[in-house]
Amino acid sequence: MQLVLEKRAERSATIALVSPLIAIALTIVTMSILFAILGKNPIAALGVYFIDPLTDSYSLQEIAVKATPLVMIAVGLSLCYLANAWNIGAEGQFLIGAVAGSWIAVKTQGTEAGHWVLPAMLLLGALAGALYALIPAICKVRFGASEILVSLMLVYVAELFLDYLVRGPWRDPAGFNFPTTAEFDAVAIVPVLVEGGRLHLGSIIALLVVAAASVLLGRTIKGFEIRVVGAAPRAARFGGFNANQLILLTFAISGALAGLAGIIEVAGPIGHLQPGISPGYGFTAIIVAFLGRLNPIGILIAGLFLALTFIGGEQAQIAMKIPLDVTKVFQGILLFYVLACDSLILYRFRLISRQAAHGTG
Amino acid sequence: MELVEAIILSVLAASTPLLIAATGELVTERSGVLNLGVEGMMIVGAACGFGGAWLTGSIFLGALCGIAAGALLSLIFALMTLGLAVNQVATGLALTILGVGLSGLIGAGFVGQRITTAPHLHIPGLTDIPFVGRILFGEDAFVYLSLALIIGVWWFLYRTRAGLILRACGDNHVSAHALGYPVLRIRLFAVMFGGACAGLAGAYLPLAYTPFFIPGMTAGRGWIALALVVFASWRPTRLVAGAYLFGAVTILQLHAQGAGVGIPSQVMSALPYLATIIVLVLVSRARTGGSTAPAALGTVFVPDR
Amino acid sequence: MRTKFLAAAAALLLAGSISAAVAADKLKVGFIYLGPVGDLGWTYQHELARQALVKEFGDKIETTYLENVPEGPDAERAIEQLVRAGNKLIFTTSFGYMDPTLKVAKKYPNVHFEHATGYKRDKNMSTYSARWYQGRYIQGQIAAKMSKAGVLGYIGSFPIPEVISGIDATMLGAQSINPNIKVKIIWVNTWFDPGKEADAAKALLDQGADIIMQHTDSPAAMQIAAERGKFAFGQDSEMIKFGPKAQLTSILDTWAPYYIARVKAELDGTWKEENIWGGLDSKMFEMAPYTNMPDDVKKMAEETQAAITAGKLHPFKCPVVGQDGKDVECKGGDRLDDAQILGMNFYVKGIDDKMPGK
Q1: pLDDT tens digit string along C128-176?
Q2: Which of A29, A196, A291, C302 has the CB geometry, 3.0–4.6 Å to A302, for a possible disulfide?
Q3: Chain B 229-258, CB below 8 Å of chain C: which residues?
């Protein structure tokens, strides 16, 4: 007797509904074991991670603030991944968008510039992100070079470019030579929504992005093309869908969204440009995209959930001295379980005799 | 001349972890599996390798621990992608994140400790030959192992039947399966070999390069190893050249600074990555002579009957 | 009437005793660390000081720390989380936490903040740092004496003023012994990357330097120097474990006395905003024991240290000659003033490299 994996005739709807719950349950069990090994009370730890941050308005706002860039980037990435185009360079596109938008802020510093400044920054940030993302896309379409590796290498280049700018030409002259621009003027700052908190306009924009992506994927021809070209490339070719054009399009959109997230983060919670503006949002967003099953609403939920684990992880460090590495382990394990459970939507296990497994006896 | 010899020695040392990790990933990818989790496997290999060496006092046992750690982590990857037909890109990334987190937890207890690094070969007479003596006969075991490994892999892939079958799995798994070869089992071995190599490469860092463990000490080398495999067009001979080229760029960049060459350091630091992109583009353009990726790389395979 | 008065008095007494009981509750002190506590360098030294606090004050305080906090929006949240967890005195131990600390300080005027190596302050936010350039000057002198090749090797992290002033002070110290001393500088663009630091050390030694100095955080360079039989200076922490025959001395960040003083002030209710830039005299940093050098060099180092501590010798005494050969404007009377040192962005004469970013 042998256990084999075989493709289902059609997707299992029940599993599709239930799999995230199974995955979360499995993750909670695994994490409880890990907490126990570390000598921490599992129930208390889980409470600090998942329940406590939901109980006060400050933490809720922070969850939204942390989730905003993640959701925006992940929605863009999901478009790429649906089309089988692997954009791994969102981190670099985020940085380039931040740099481009900051250029306007730096150039209009101290002048009595009007309210056009912020929208211009956001626009330029998105545009720059899109162009930066087109580099790996063009390398893929024209030369067949792996977009995974090109986009990844460009992340390092973007980091170094940002570093060069804030240490050199854009350095705040009154800043004792430290690598940061001057604080952005008020017109160049993303407005806060709730007084006293950090919840800002970017979160609204993120929601709009989720809505727009839902419409794009669910109700437009282009969305349909994107989904088909990834799921059934040959059918797409027969249908006349231009795979190359879709690669360029999805990369451009995801680059724009990552760039937009970048400038919003800089012009919002940070308020100036400095070398460390992203704790790896571009990579975490990849997890969010998969956790959300490449679906805009799912990504919104996944982004909020992951942000919850970040906030919870920090509180766990304070309250229970649980090391921050545990949060990374948790995120990795969660993703594993979600992916594993999701595979059961398309495949299932069957126990069959050895003969049947190897064709003819 | 002394300076050139010194530079070559530094380059050899810097390139060795890249070479070992890339060799493993090359075999994995040749069998048709794309494992992006190299960085995670390397850093876990570093933590376990150092821990093993520190606890037992033996570099050899430490290296074994590193190898085992990398192989175990790759086993998780294999179960997911081969056993459950999960998307390889996502799984690889999850592996990296998991590995980085795990290594922090495992390594936390070892931070601040030091060990004696792997000894260098010394053959009286041979090692003392000016210029080539130390380069050829004065390296540590890892350097020699890395070269033996890549030569072994070359011989395996191109001179043995098993290697031919492995390459067939990577080029066309459907045909290989139709011919009766156990594609999934072959890929499993390839993936675990890749994991073992990544673990060994990671262990090299605290066992031979700098004799202590610090969280995050791989500093992105796993990603460079991935780029190297593509850079080398999946061919072992080019892999050696690529690994040493990369090592050279990183070392020379530092030497140029020390010598007062006035290019901004960020430009110098960016050179290896820019070089990779350029080479990727050039290599992908030149589609002659089988320099392309294994055709089935990264695609899911579920055998049907 | 009387009962009301008595009730009020009783209530007041009760309130007073309750608040006295509350005051007897522990003082919560929080720390934000940039790196892992095990980095054997910068963060490690802060952690040692925190442990010293626990030993000193025992039950009177409760300390918490958050490690691996990236500079940026996460830092602001981390600091605020410490505040919300009840910490009343918070140390943020990296320059990049400056703006986040300021923002949180404005929000919580009753919490006190101590920010390391920054320059923005507020009524409830102090800054503190140490005059490490004094130690660098001593190291420069030692290096000039111990170097046979007359070439020093310097591993720089980032070209910020703190590092530049360190390089300049080293050179000035070295030049006071050997006017023709040379230095090779490599910028690794990181505070912490053992592999890269080791590579940089190797490159410097290969190019003819025979003393290694670093402004990065890991013991990798010391290790390489030890392997090659050369000398090196440690940074932040004692690195002699990694180079028993190589370490000449190390600049040790010893934050404990400062932290203890600040916590005591907080406990006594006398905490006020300060801008502390402590030299050797403040004991905010120390020189590790002078080892692996002949007695006369050791004596010279000790004498220089004593002179600097007593304020008799100033590393940046005028005239300071810049790379362009011209005297730097002397704004502090007979020495460069604090602002000039804090913002130092020029090399002194004798350094041949071009400064990055200019």
Answers
A1: 999 999 999 999 999 999 999 999 999 998 888 889 999 999 999 999 9
A2: A291
A3: 250-251, 254-255, 257-258
